[in-house]
Specification:
This protein has a six-stranded antiparallel beta sheet with strand order 5-12-6-7-8-9. The protein has 308 residues and is α+β, with helices and mostly antiparallel strands. It is globular, with a radius of gyration of 21 Å. The longest helix has 13 residues.
C-alpha cells in the first residue's frame, strides 16, 4: 500500500503573496522561484540542512524546527530517507545551497513536489556513496524507536537489544544479516529456542550486539564519564551502553538505549525497552528516581557511535 505524506501546514497562494509583499516592504524581496515548504514528520525534532543530498553529509547552520519553513529552489535525487511511512529518494535544495530530505517536508505526495523544478545536473552534486554500503538513517531510526517504545515483544521478557536492533533495521534502513537478524534458521545463532526460528544472539543480547556492531564496522565504542552530559558527543540514533551488573566490574554490557532527543542544553535523551521509556535523561534511573552512578556505584557507560 502506498503511503502518502499528510501535510501539516502549507502556504496558500494568498499567504505566499503576503510573504512576498512583506519582503518587498522590508527592501529584501523574496525570489519568485523559491517555494516555501513546511518541515514535518520529524516527531518534533526538526531537521538539519546538509551540504549535499545525503544524511552522511555535513550539517549546515541550525536545525529547522518542526513546523518551520524552508525556501526551496529545486529538487534532486539523493540518499533514500524514511519518515516512518515511506522511503523517499528526493532532496530539496534550499536558497542557500544546502539540502533537506523531501521525506521531512509537507508536500502532499511521495513524488516530486508540484511546481518545484528539478535541479540542473550541473548544480546537483550526487552524494558519494559506495554501491555496497547502506547509510544509516538516524532520524528514521529515532522515529521508529519513539513509536515502538510503548509496545513490547510477545516472547522476549527483556528486549532492550531487540528494541534498538529493530529500530536500526526498520527506521534506520540498515540491512539484517545472518548474524544480526530476527529471522534465522541457524540453531547455533538463536537467542532462545523459544524463538525458533528467529532472533539471533547479536540482535537480542546487549553484549553480543556491541561486539557484533564493532566487528561488522557498523559502530565504534568508547567509555565516557558520567559527568560528561554530552555522552562523548552522542548524535541522534547512537546507542548508549550500560555496564551495571556487579557494579560494572564484569566488563559485560547489560543494557542499551537509543538517543532519540536532546535537552535545550544539548544533552542526550534516550528511549528504551524493558521497561518502555521515551526520552528519559540518559544518566537518570526512572525506577530508582536517582542518578544511575549513585544507584549503582561503579557502573560504567559507553557511547556506541553508529558509523554506517
Amino acid at each position: 500500500m502506498k503511503h502518502i505524506k499528510v501535510p501539516i501546514r502549507r502556504l496558500t497562494t494568498l499567504s505566499l503573496t503576503a510573504v512576498l509583499a512583506t519582503a518587498a516592504a522590508l527592501g529584501s524581496p523574496a525570489h519568485a522561484d523559491e517555494h516555501q515548504l513546511t518541515v514535518a514528520f520529524t516527531n518534533g525534532q526538526g531537521i538539519h540542512p546538509r551540504s549535499s543530498p545525503s544524511m552522511a553529509a555535513s550539517k549546515v547552520g541550525n536545525a529547522v524546527p518542526e513546523g518551520g519553513t524552508v525556501s526551496v529552489v529545486c529538487e534532486t535525487e539523493g540518499e533514500a530517507v524514511s519518515n516512518g511511512a515511506a522511503n523517499i529518494f528526493l532532496w530539496d535544495k534550499l536558497a542557500d545551497g544546502s539540502f533537506v530530505p523531501n521525506a521531512f517536508l509537507a508536500t502532499d505526495t511521495n513524488g516530486r513536489t508540484p511546481g518545484v523544478p528539478a535541479c540542473e545536473e550541473t548544480t546537483q552534486p550526487a552524494p558519494q556513496q559506495s554501491t555496497n554500503r547502506v547509510r544509516y538513517n538516524r532520524y528514521g531510526a529515532v522515529i521508529d524507536a519513539k513509536r515502538y517504545a510503548k509496545s513490547f515483544h510477545p516472547l522476549l521478557a527483556t528486549d532492550c537489544t531487540y528494541f534498538v536492533s529493530r529500530s536500526m533495521w526498520y527506521g534506520g534502513n540498515l540491512p539484517q544479516t545472518s548474524d544480526w537478524t530476527e529471522w534465522s534458521k541457524d540453531q547455533g545463532k538463536w537467542a532462545s529456542k523459544n524463538l525458533a526460528p528467529g532472533v539471533t544472539v547479536a540482535a537480542a543480547n546487549a553484549n553480543k550486539f556491541v561486539q557484533y556492531t564493532q566487528q561488522a564496522g557498523i559502530a565504534t565504542m568508547k567509555e565516557v564519564s558520567w559527568s560528561d552530559n554530552t555522552v562523548g558527543g552522542a548524535d541522534y540514533g547512537d546507542i548508549i551502553a550500560y555496564d551495571w551488573n556487579e557494579g560494572g566490574a564484569d566488563g559485560v554490557i547489560d543494557h542499551l538505549a537509543m538517543v532519540t532527543g536532546f535537552t535545550p542544553e544539548g544533552y542526550p535523551l534516550v528511549s528504551q525497552h524493558s521497561p518502555g521509556q521515551v526520552n528519559r535523561f540518559w544518566s537518570w534511573s526512572e525506577e530508582q528516581h536517582n542518578w544511575i552512578e549513585k544507584s549503582v556505584p561503579g557502573a560504567k557507560v559507553y557511547l556506541l557511535h553508529i558509523t554506517a
